[in-house]
Amino acid sequence: MSKDFAFMFYPGDYLRDTQCLSEKTQVAYDRIMCEHMRNICITQQQLNFFTKRLSPDELNELLFVLTKIKGGYEIEWVAKSIRERIAYSDSRRKNRVGKTKEDKIDTSETYDSHMEGEGEGKDKSKIDYESVVENYHSLCPKLNKVIVINDLRKGFMNTRVGEYGMEKVIAVMRMAGESEFLNGKNEKAWKADFEWIMRPQNFVKILEGKYNKNTIPHEDPVERDMRLLRESRERDKK
Predict the structure, then answer these.
(1) All structural domains of the chain with their residue ranges
(2) What pTM was computed for the model?
């Protein structure tokens, strides 16, 4: 594919990533986002360049919304957008070459379909979407309700259930519902929502216990132990 100077911008994903970032960290995120679009992913050298003015805490804040991959880092939704642009450009190029009717691109894989969801887990008949959402509402009562089950959300459900099974999906929802951090007990009173929980990077972090009741993302282990000790002493006083 020739050099592509555009990519699909997803405001919801951008705001979800940046709503808890400081102003200084968000500037670094924006520069990384633009460089990412031109270079498929961000190398360690590029990351060092864009974050050289950040403090260690600010760097941790930024790394929290990046995904470590082979060869560097990526912003999940930007990488997805790039793949969609490549697929679209390739399909257009093949059509211009003049394929036979049998070799034409399947219309179910057109650019429009890529815009709507993850594009994974095509056998949707096996997933009871309503049941998944009902479990979310029951296990995460303090988080925003799901009003519409659109293609994007179906895609997330298909993929997570396909990867981990329904039991693990329900377990992650339960952990999210019990997490004080994800339910608004953080510096910015931010709360997770259904889509945030079901995104691959966030799903794994919840599954691994990074948002458990007594865990704060990026908290230094020594500071965590001291905090837990203080909390224990305060409870004993009561």
Answers:
(1) 11-79, 124-207
(2) 0.45
